[in-house]
Specification:
about 350 residues, Metallo-beta-lactamase, Chain A, 2 domains, seven-stranded mixed beta sheet, five-stranded mixed beta sheet, 10 helices, about 20% strand
Length: about 350
């Protein structure tokens, strides 16, 4: 039986590229894949993980297996601003002086999380009452979002990466591909010569990423995500090197599965509105969640919040497509099937 993908260790990905899963304590994701790129006398890290002593220990041990020390880290590349991808990069820079690069679209979220008293989930908490889930506000523990991380790990990077830019390493060139949806400034790193894509959380091999969970929100995060998936499919196919889950052979194959999943989800959401579900919370209760097909009330409060807000993202797309109409009553958003006016 194959080892779980999150089993600590060092795993070859391609010539000069290795995967080190770093454990995420108290997180259902289990681990984040930090990819180690051999680069001249040192290494470059893609998604260096979450700040903490355990990540530092596992990274140090993994590098030692490859014949490197922590001090050999020359640069950190983060696909997006979430704590399990970015915060350890800031910690490593503080200790080692290695520069950190991040997508330019994450600038606003970094500033917002530094100013927030609830670890950047202000817009999510504010949105819940309008979704018909006001009672959930008091159930969500903001500390869950903070994970006990110090505020100092939310510093700006040394370099803001633009779409289409190149990251020139000694051993290879990586192309920066902006892929908004999971977060506004999410980027991927495409190694065309190796036929490999570091997709971060944009394309995950076994689960669907959350949509628009960030301190600065956008009007249609799901629409942005679907457009990013189509953009990814238009690129040359390559090995899928994602932040959570095993490495797999085809990025395109998984992109097709994700597009199909969301098309089905939109159809199911529309069916529930047609059946009389009016609020976001009503629709979310009619859907099933996770690969285990759980009901909404089976989820913990934090994941219930994510589920409600993802449902809103699907309803927003249906509204934008003019197949449902949206109104407000007593401060709560209400949805109904759109009935086109008959031509006279």
């Amino acid at each position: 039986m194959a080892e779980p993908w999150y089993q600590p260790g060092v795993y070859p990905v391609a010539d000069g590229i290795h995967r080190i899963p770093l454990t995420l304590p108290d997180d259902g994701l289990r681990a984040v894949n930090t990819f180690v790129i051999e680069d001249g006398p040192g290494v470059v890290l893609v998604d260096p993980g979450q700040y903490g002593s355990l990540a530092r220990q596992e990274l140090t041990e993994g590098l030692a297996t490859l014949g490197y020390r922590l001090g050999d880290v020359r640069r950190c590349l983060a696909t997006h601003v979430h704590r399990d991808h970015y915060t350890n990069a800031v910690a490593l820079r503080r200790e080692l002086g290695c520069p950190v690069s991040l997508g330019a679209g994450e600038r606003g979220s970094l500033a917002a999380v530094r100013a927030s008293r609830v670890y950047g989930i202000d817009p999510q908490l504010r949105a819940l009452p309008a979704c018909g889930a006001a009672s959930l506000v008091d159930e969500v523990d903001p500390e869950r979002a903070g994970h006990g991380l110090p505020t100092g790990v939310w510093q700006d990077p040394d370099e803001w990466l633009a779409d289409g830019a190149t990251v020139e390493l000694t051993s290879r060139t990586l192309r920066v591909v902006r892929a908004p949806g999971h977060t506004t400034g999410h980027v991927m790193f495409h190694d065309t010569e190796a036929g490999l894509v570091f997709t971060g959380d944009h394309v995950l091999p076994r689960i669907t990423p959350s949509i628009g969970f960030e301190p600065v929100t956008t009007p249609l995060p799901l629409a942005a995500f679907l457009a990013s998936l189509r953009k990814t499919h238009a690129l040359p196919d390559g090995t899928l090197a994602a932040a959570h889950g095993p490495v797999s052979d085809s990025t395109h194959e998984r992109v097709t599965e994700l597009l199909t999943h969301h098309a089905d989800r939109l159809e199911r959401t529309l069916d529930l509105v047609r059946a009389g579900a009016e609020t976001v919370h009503d629709v979310a209760r009619g859907l099933r969640w996770t690969r285990r097909e759980r009901e909404l009330e089976e989820l913990d409060p934090f994941n219930r919040m994510l589920a409600v807000l993802e449902t809103k993202a699907h309803l927003d797309v249906l509204t934008d497509r003019d197949v449902v109409r949206r109104g407000t009553s007593a401060g709560v958003l209400r949805y109904a099937p759109h009935t086109p006016t008959a031509a006279r």
